[in-house]
Amino acid sequence: ELECTQLLKDRDRKNEELKIALAQIADKDVEIQQLKQIC
Asked: What would the pLDDT profile of 16-30 be if each residue is shown by its tens digit?
């Protein structure tokens, strides 16, 4: 029971980390597109 709760918490935490990472990647993609337009 306790282990299951811990696993669910870990999963939620990882999901949050993934969302943040994906947002950062999207930001970088925008930067790259802007650089391409300049160069």
From this structure: 999 999 999 999 999
Q: Spell 9-26 as b/e; 16+ CB within 10 A means b.
A: eeeeeeeeeeeeeeeeee
Q: What is the DSSP string of 8-39?
A: HHHHHHHHHHHHHHHHHHHHHHHHHHHHHHH-
Q: Rounded to two decimals, what is the model's pTM?
A: 0.71
Q: Rounded to whole angstroms, what are the CA distances from 34 to 2, 3, 10, 27, 29?
A: 49, 47, 36, 11, 9
